[in-house]
Design a protein that fits this description.
By secondary structure, the chain is α+β, with helices and mostly antiparallel strands. It is built from 3 helices and 2 strands, in the order αααββ.
Length: about 70
């Protein structure tokens, strides 16, 4: 699975996104400030993980562990 440091980074990104959603930040601000590109690059760099962005809204990242992971 994820190391404690990786999990902490993912938690920070999601907490930031949820806070932005709660205060109804404009979509353009949410996209810039939560740095989802960092999350995507991180997840795609983990050995044994397949990840793809689906064209839903601003993008929906779907990830899965492969059989060998």
């Amino acid at each position: 699975m994820f190391t404690p440091a990786e999990q902490a980074a993912i938690d920070r990104l999601w907490r930031s996104k949820l806070e932005q959603d709660a205060r109804k930040a404009p979509a353009a601000d949410r996209h810039r400030s939560h740095r989802l590109t960092d999350y995507v690059a991180h997840v795609r760099g983990i050995p044994g993980v397949e990840s793809v962005t689906l064209p839903v809204g601003k993008g929906l990242e779907i990830s899965r562990f492969t059989k060998g992971a």
